[in-house]
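User: tokens in, sequence out, please.
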């Protein structure tokens, strides 16, 4: 920040263990409070006299449901200047590019970072001292909010503007890091760095890791979630689930997303355009009963599958009848979401044959893999994950 020599780095290193299993953890007596609640409880001391930008969407709310925008706009000594939004816009409901706009309640300008540019421009930062980041993530490499955060860190480092991450729980943190680490040549907006399919980090931890990894000259503050442990499933937090994007409508969908999301590049519907995105897969060419029968013979730990027929109203195969299966999580302690996605891909290869575009799954993994003769179902292995987890250890903030 231009008017502060340093920031208090609120990073409480509470112990770190690689790849924890998703054992049930009793909710402690302390309520789970997102970073915005902790900031408010501290009287916004971090922001006094600062000109503030806020990167947020509809998930940026206090535990009791107030918008972070309104909390900051009404805070004494805080000058909220501008709002930034990630993919899907402020209300988290839009698909495709999103234009700039204005917040109806406060009149503040909104700069979209998923429109004409994916990064804040120098003029967007010139009148700011600090940008706050308050967005709920789902912990998956190809979910774009981590990339938007990385771009914010890079541009603020160049501009000499501070960043403060108001941290939030990772809903799939109990499973730890999952899937292979991607290769440098695969870096893109849906693959911001060499990392597993599911990284197991909060975005506060991700920001700390990225600042160190890239050597950014940046004043970075992480305001941790209070009362949260990385072993907690979402239902244990007591927080309301606010969909962070149009199709992740429930915590169960978020749990399945790392695996079912691997299939989305294939010639399948993953339930977009229905009332259960990521809880069903299908296609006009697919025999759902045959797939369900195969998966009953070779079950996927933690899942029950049921044959269904559905007609998406939008997205892939819109208005076409699709044969497929419905997915239900019945045991979180045995479910491994990425492995489940690979097992589904393997089953689709067997039942669908050449009609299923198996190579797209390998492409989405963004990691080396021999296509010929390699079983998708049994492939996951370590994939460089242990070494990666060791590298992020210094930046972990929560009990695991």
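Assistant: Sequence out:
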């Amino acid at each position: 920040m231009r008017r502060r020599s340093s920031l208090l780095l609120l990073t409480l290193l509470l112990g770190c263990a690689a790849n924890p299993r998703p054992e049930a953890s009793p909710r402690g007596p302390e309520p789970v409070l997102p970073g915005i609640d902790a900031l408010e409880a501290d009287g916004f001391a971090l922001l006094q006299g600062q000109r503030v930008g806020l990167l947020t969407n509809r998930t940026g709310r206090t535990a009791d449901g107030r918008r972070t925008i309104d909390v900051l706009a009404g805070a004494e000594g805080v000058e909220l200047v501008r709002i930034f939004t990630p993919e899907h816009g402020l209300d988290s409901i839009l698909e495709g590019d999103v234009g700039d706009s204005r917040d109806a309640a406060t009149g503040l300008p909104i700069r979209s970072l998923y429109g004409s540019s994916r990064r804040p421009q120098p003029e967007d930062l010139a009148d700011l001292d600090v940008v706050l980041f308050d967005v709920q993530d789902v912990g998956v490499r190809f979910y774009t909010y981590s990339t938007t955060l990385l771009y914010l860190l890079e541009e603020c480092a160049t501009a000499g503007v501070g960043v403060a991450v108001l941290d939030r729980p990772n809903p799939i943190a109990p499973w730890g890091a999952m899937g292979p680490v991607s290769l440098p040549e695969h870096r893109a907006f849906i693959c911001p760095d060499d990392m597993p399919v599911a990284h197991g980090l909060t975005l506060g931890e991700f920001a700390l890791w990225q600042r160190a990894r890239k050597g950014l000259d940046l004043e970075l503050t992480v305001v941790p979630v209070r009362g949260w442990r990385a072993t907690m499933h979402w239902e244990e937090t007591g927080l309301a689930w606010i969909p962070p994007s149009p199709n992740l409508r429930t915590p169960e969908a978020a749990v399945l997303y790392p695996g079912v999301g691997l299939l989305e590049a294939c010639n399948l519907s993953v339930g977009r355009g229905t009332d259960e995105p990521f809880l069903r897969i299908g296609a006009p060419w697919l025999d759902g009963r045959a797939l369900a029968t195969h998966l009953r013979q070779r079950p996927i730990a933690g899942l029950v599958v049921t044959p269904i027929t559905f007609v998406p109203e939008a997205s892939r195969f819109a208005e076409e009848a699709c044969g497929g299966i419905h997915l239900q999580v019945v045991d979180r302690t045995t479910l491994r979401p990425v492995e489940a996605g690979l097992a589904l891909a393997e089953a689709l290869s067997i039942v669908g044959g050449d009609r299923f575009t198996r190579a797209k799954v390998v492409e989405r993994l963004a990691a080396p893999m021999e296509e010929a003769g390699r079983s998708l179902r049994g492939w996951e292995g370590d994939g460089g994950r242990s070494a990666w987890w060791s590298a992020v250890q210094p930046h972990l903030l929560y009990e695991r």
